[in-house]
């Protein structure tokens, strides 16, 4: 192999490494890794309880965290692409350089699973009230599909931003309405606060992935807060299930 | 006021009845002691068999109901399941 070729490859490699380091790529990977591990630990840690009880609430709860894990996997994958191609936003993908199918498919899967994770978490605490109409779960799949479709059709961050904020408001409103009607007025576990924060930080995470320049200053704060929430959930699950 | 038992409680009570009878009880006394209607009991009984929580044992031409390993596991984990459901308001 000619020496020039080797030197060229080495320089390119060094440039890539420094590019990744400067963009906090390792931080991204670490962040996604922690969230994926936490989510999968919650999913597998509750497996036995579900197998024994067949309780629908436990089923939706654990599926929600499986969806979180899948969505975060695709999130880190998209971030990798954004950093690798050195582009400002996921919406700036040029079909020529990136490929319509590749970008759209990844984006679609990410949006679908992230929406489903939130819907399932909400459904896990509300399934008893909504059980009379079993088609609700198909409605969630339909909404998640529509959200994903709108995201890849419009490719406009602000359409998605407003849509997501609207969705978040709806989720919080439904959740609080459900709690208000509930016989248990006051929770001793403060779960509603954890869930509200989880929903809110999920939206911030989505905005962060779609418009990376939007939260540049607060990025680390969003990451740390999200990790804290997932670790808190994992701690609560481990404490209650005794899973190791 | 009588508190209506939920599905998990009824399953736990049925399994406990079997366990307390030295893990061997006939169908009819189990139905009587479970405090649910015969039609509902039949539904639960079929479900318990399907889930492999109980098994039918034949002794001296008579049919008995007995707990399986999974049935014992359910009883062991019942409190954990209930606490988990309560903790996460599921």
What does this structure look like?
- The complex is a heterodimer of chains A (244) and B (90).
- Chain A has 244 residues and is mainly α.
- Chain A has a single domain, classed as Up-down Bundle (Rhopdopsin 7-helix transmembrane proteins), CATH 1.20.1070.
- Chain A has 10 helices and no strands.
- Chain B has 90 residues and is an alpha+beta fold.
- Chain B has one domain: Orthogonal Bundle (Arc Repressor Mutant, subunit A).
- Chain B is built from 4 helices and 3 strands; from the N terminus they run αβααββα.
- Chain B has a 3-stranded antiparallel β-sheet with strand order 1-3-2.
- In chain B, a hairpin with a 2-residue loop joins strand 2 and strand 3.
- Chain B starts with 6 loop residues before the first helix and ends with a helix.
- Chains A and B meet through helix 3, helix 4, helix 6 and helix 10 of A and helix 4 of B.
Explain briefly what this protein structure is.
Chain A is mostly helical.
* Radius of gyration of chain A from CA coordinates: 20 Å
The average pLDDT value of chain A, as a whole number, equals 76
Low-pLDDT residue intervals, each spanning 5 or more residues of chain A:
none
In the CATH hierarchy, what is the architecture of chain A at level 2? Up-down Bundle
Q: What fraction strand of chain B?
A: 15-25%
Low-confidence stretches of chain B: none
Major interchain interface with per-chain residue totals: A-B, 23 and 15 residues
